[in-house]
Write a structure and sequence with these properties.
The chain is an all-alpha fold and 161 residues long. Among the domains are: 1-30, no CATH class; 50-109. The protein contains 4 helices and 2 strands; from the N terminus they run H-E-E-H-H-H. A two-stranded antiparallel ribbon has the order 1-2. Strand 1 and strand 2 (19-20) form a beta hairpin. The chain is rod-shaped and about 170 Å long.
Length: 161
Amino acid sequence: MRAIKAQRLRATRDNRNQWRINPQDLEVWRSAHPAHSALTVQKDEIAHSAHEAAHVDEALRAEVETLRREVERLERDLVAEKVRNEGLAGEIAAERARADAEAKHAEREGAASDDLRARLTRAEDERRAVVDQITTMVAKITEPEPAPTPRRGLLARLLGT
């Protein structure tokens, strides 16, 4: 901790407030400070087997910890991807519903416009028929003959009035 606080050993804190140290940085620091490391392994011809076992155990622990962190990161990524996929699935479902509604609306509008066209055609046909009937009736009607002038009576003729 003193080396970390003095910034002689690089370390970062993770989300669990635990220190994370790069294994290569730790090895460099250990080799430079053998008296400060509790798990120092002497690499000489007379190295003790207990020291070698401690070094192997520590290496395995470090590798297991690295793999555990990697699994945790992958699990977080998987959860985030699932959430993103669920969001996309919701958007896709909404788009499908909107497209279906638009298609139904267009279909109804198309049917309504077809109905309006048919009604317009029928109205024009009826108008033409009425015009034809009126034309026929007008052709049949002749101008009335002028009314005959009334004959003057005998007395009027005699008196000349």
